[in-house]
Amino acid sequence: MADKKTNPKVPIMDHLNIAEFNRGQSSRLLRELVEADKTAYIQKNGKPIAVVMSYARYLRLCEKGIDINEH
Fold it and tell me: The pTM is what?
């Protein structure tokens, strides 16, 4: 039997374009992210390059024993 390749699980989240940060919109974008308590990825040239999340969401992950720094 052939090995089946599984696709990695990709969470559904908002995306932010790096160009918006470069145009001085970072303060507004981060404030909206925090107010909505969301996680978003930042993309450059249509490819994800970083993930940003609210601090409250990060603390909830830590409380559940998930340390994103270990993975």
Answer: 0.68
Cα 5 to Cα 2, 8: the distances in Å are 9, 9
**pLDDT, tens only, 23-54:** 888 899 889 888 988 889 999 998 999 999 98
HSE (side-chain half, CA atoms, 13 Å) at 54: 14
- H or E, element range at 39: strand 39-44
Residue 31 belongs to what H/E stretch?
helix 26-35
* Mean of per-residue pLDDT scores for the chain: 83
CATH of domain 14-55: 3.40.1620
- Residue in 23, 62, 21, 64 with CA at minimum distance from that of residue 40: 21
Domain chopping of the chain, boundaries: 14-55
